[in-house]
Amino acid sequence: DVQLVESGGGSVQAGGSLRLSCSHFGYSSSRHCMGWFRQAPGKAREGIAGIRRDGDEYYADSVKGRFTISQDNAKNTVYLQMNSLKPEDTAVYFCAAAYINSCPRTSDGYPYWGQGTQVTVS
């Protein structure tokens, strides 16, 4: 079974930084799309960044220029470096995986999900 394990959430003051990690296991594919999503209380889940195995990446306008997605394919791990954090970035952050070649931008395109990690910016 595919498993995604996230780490790196926490609390930080506005203007600070955090790095999230997501390791994925149990898949057998030469392709992957890894996405980061977030969900604040009372709001819909929002796609904020994604990266394909070959390095092609995308960002939502809300995080562009502040967040950076990266990956270490040898470690099956994807990272989300979050800088210049704002209170409105407070949410539960999820990583998601799809073993296809064209990366979805919405949550319904990803069949595999991590457990989520809380990020709180005050």
Question: What order do the helices and strands come in, and which of them pair?
Answer:
Blueprint (H helix, E strand, L loop, with lengths): L2 E5 L2 E3 L5 E8 L7 E7 L6 E7 L4 E3 L7 E6 L4 E6 L8 E8 L13 E2 L3 E5 L1
Describe the structure.
The protein is mostly beta strands and 122 residues long. 0% of the residues lie in helices and 49% in strands. Strands 2, 4, 5, 6, 9, 10 and 11 form a 7-stranded mixed β-sheet that branches. The protein has a 4-stranded antiparallel β-sheet with strand order 1-3-8-7, with no helix packed on it. A hairpin with a 4-residue loop joins strand 5 and strand 6 (57-59). The mean pLDDT is 94.
- Assess the beta-strand content as a share of residues: over 45%
Please give the largest β-sheet.
7 strands, mixed
| Average pLDDT over all residues | 94
Class computed from helices, strands and strand pairing: mainly beta
Shape category: globular
| Helix/strand order | EEEEEEEEEEE
Q: Distance between the terminal alpha carbons, to the nearest Å?
A: 37 Å
Number of helices: 0
Number of distinct beta strands: 11
Which regions contain 5 or more consecutive residues with pLDDT less than 50? none
- Overall radius of gyration: 13 Å
Fraction in helix = under 10%
Short description:
The chain is an all-beta fold. It is built from no helices and 11 strands.
Looking at this protein, list some descriptive labels.
single chain; 122 residues; mainly beta; seven-stranded mixed β-sheet; four-stranded antiparallel β-sheet; globular
